[in-house]
Amino acid sequence: MTTPIAMHDRIAYSAMPERAPVQWPGGARLALWVAPNIEHYEYLPQEVRVRDPWPRVPHPDILGYGQRDYGNRVGVWRFMELFDRFHISCTVSLSMAVLQMYPDITEAMLERRWELMSHGLYNTRYHWNYTEDEERQAIAHCQDIHRSVTGRDLRGWFSPAASNTLATPDLVAEAGISYLCDLYHDDQPTAIRVRQGELVSLPYSMEINDSIAWRRGMEAADFAQKIRDEFDTLYAEGGRVMNIAVHPFIMGQPHRIAALSEALEYILGHSGVWCATGAEIVDAWRAQQPTPDP
């Protein structure tokens, strides 16, 4: 059995003041990527292992399911109208089953040329306690769905419901995926040590994330102010990545969508904001890195 690599060995420590400045295209001060989480939660989960996806047991949990189903029926279309208005090319944190279950959503994402980052098959299929073979098969299944729909390989991976194993980075790199969003440790991309190949950690936010704010009881106006405050600091510092993670069943609600619109208008009202996809940010960062010593 292969010995897992400890996380402190996967990522070299780097103090921000000692790093060479990161230059974004066009001299931009900040790289912004917006990640709508378009997910599917199984009505009757097939796998209940480490954690029950629906704590209101016994199943079915019609309240939890119905709240989330609202996102794919209504909220996602508000998102699309909003992001179209601001000309934002999103990177979707996507439950890959959505591509097969919701052809209208699939067609709309492809028309907009949004980048599709795998968020697992369903957001109720956790990877905790998977064996390497089980997780390898789960990642391959997602890769196969993406290839069959888009004709391209996946560029990014974010494990379903932020679940993962000690081997996740190795298996993601092995599958030919170039960036991982399972780590929340930095404001810039960082290299991840893997058994074979290359992998980059792209900053994904659990702070500028409506799901976490919602669970903390934070409503839309406060969340929007939090977005603006985060932007002000990162923009002033320069050379950083800012992620905005939103869910259509939360910020896609009619009483919240205006707050998200106001926050985006504030950010995009500044010059020097590069609104990019996850892959574009990773590629721009990689181009500035020295060739690793073999």
Tell me about this structure:
- By secondary structure, this protein is of the alpha/beta class.
- The protein has a single domain (21-286), classed as Glycoside hydrolase/deacetylase (TIM Barrel, Alpha-Beta Barrel), CATH 3.20.20.370.
- It is built from ten helices and nine strands.
- The chain has helices at residues 7-10, 62-85, 98-101, 103-111, 132-150, 168-174, 210-215, 220-237, 257-268, 278-286, and strands spanning 30-38, 91-94, 115-118, 156-157, 179-180, 190-192, 199-201, 240-246, 273-275.
- Strands 1, 2, 3, 8 and 9 form a five-stranded parallel sheet that branches. A four-stranded mixed sheet has the order 4-5-7-6, sandwiched between helices.
- A hairpin with a 6-residue loop joins strand 6 (190-192) and strand 7.
- Helix 8 packs parallel to helix 9.
- The protein is globular.
- 41% of the residues are buried.
- The model has no long low-confidence stretch (mean pLDDT 94).
Chart the SSEs and their pairings:
Layout: H1 7-10, E1 30-38, H2 62-85, E2 91-94, H3 98-101, H4 103-111, E3 115-118, H5 132-150, E4 156-157, H6 168-174, E5 179-180, E6 190-192, E7 199-201, H7 210-215, H8 220-237, E8 240-246, H9 257-268, E9 273-275, H10 278-286
Parallel strand pairs: 1-2, 1-8, 1-9, 2-3, 4-5, 5-7
Antiparallel strand pairs: 6-7
Helix pairs in contact: 8-9
Give a short synopsis of this structure.
The protein is an alpha/beta fold and 294 residues long. It has helices at residues 7-10, 62-85, 98-101, 103-111, 132-150, 168-174, 210-215, 220-237, 257-268, 278-286, and strands at residues 30-38, 91-94, 115-118, 156-157, 179-180, 190-192, 199-201, 240-246, 273-275. The protein has one domain (21-286): TIM Barrel, CATH 3.20.20.370.
